[in-house]
Amino acid sequence: MVTKPLVIVTRKLPDAIETRMRELFDARLNVDDKPMSPAELAEALKVADVLVPTLTDRLDSRLLAQAGEKLKLIANFGTGVDHIDVESARSRGVIVTNTPGVLTEDTADMTMALILSVPRRITEGLDSLRAGEWGGWSPTGLLGRRIYGKRLGIIGMGRIGQAVARRARAFGLQIHYHNRHKVSAPVEETLEATYWESLDQMLARMDIISVNCPHTPATFHLLSARRLQLLQPHAYVVNTARGEIIDENALTRMLINGKIAGAGLDVFEHEPAVNPKLLNLKNVLLLPHMGSATIEGRVDMGEKVIINIKTFVDGHTPPDRVIPSML
Ligand code: DGY
Predict the structure, then answer these.
(1) What is the C-alpha separation between 173 and 115, in angstroms, rounded?
(2) Residues 195-226: tens digit of each pLDDT
(3) Are residues 119 and 97 in the same domain?
(4) Residue 109 CA to ligand 1 centre (angstroms)
(5) Does some domain include residue 1?
(6) Which atom of ligand 1 is nearest to 242's Cα?
(7) 158 C-alpha vs ligand 1 centroid, how far in Å?
(8) Residues 114 and 209 occupy one common structural domain
(9) Ligand 1: lining residues by beta carbon, under 6 Å
(10) Which atom of ligand 1 is nearest to the CA of 292?
(11) Full-prediction pTM beyond 0.85?
(12) What are the catalytic residues?
């Protein structure tokens, strides 16, 4: 590869990252942060040595088929790679990397914020204050549900799931989890976590569910209409992973009909669209995909992208290579 590869970045990144990219690479930046159209993405794929996309760029097999000979690396700015057809990229000899690890604590904080806020009706309290409706303290006003002692069922016990579990334990929640594999015995012991091989069985027994697994073909609508019906009426659902993991229409129906107690959603099935029926519900807290949105986190992500590109350009395997068979 040429010494200064043409690196095309699809969105505006933190200044410090863009400056470093300009120093190291022939970097083509998107300072206006206007998302690229599919035609613009196709053009970028044709000419770039390295593409730095984000989750807002859909790189499907049709688009990847238009990539030029020079394209050898897609260094994703983000951990989730469900917007990239990694197998198609691999078959064209293009390596895909991501930015794992650096979003873990921030995403777990946001998950915990939702776990606390929805059962304790924090937005309802805020709304009543802002609307000038608060008439003073009352013994029965805005009663929520206690967090301490409840059962939290974590779906996906990877880095983020474990970081959620560590926090949740400190709040007195009992940790349960469903994962493709049991985590190691020391991790399970430290978290005092109970493994459920059967997701159905776990769902039926939990007070709060937190979705923390990646979106893959195997986890699309993992929380299907059928599975959501297994939840108890007092259960809450929190999702800071990917909207596609939950059947959003089915969840909305359950919330409207009082079949579950509430939901905290940072992600949606058709982002940036949100099911309009969700917007008016009192028992939901909706956030615009901001689980990892910290200044520190975004800089760390950018540094990881740079390390992946630099390592690759220097002739080595980049540290955060995504292997399709591991998805
Ligand atoms: C990711 O990196 O996949 C996150 O969802 C970004 O917030």
Answers:
(1) 10
(2) 999 999 999 999 999 999 999 999 999 999 99
(3) no
(4) 14
(5) no
(6) 5
(7) 14
(8) yes
(9) 55, 78-80, 103, 291-292
(10) 7
(11) yes
(12) 242, 271, 289
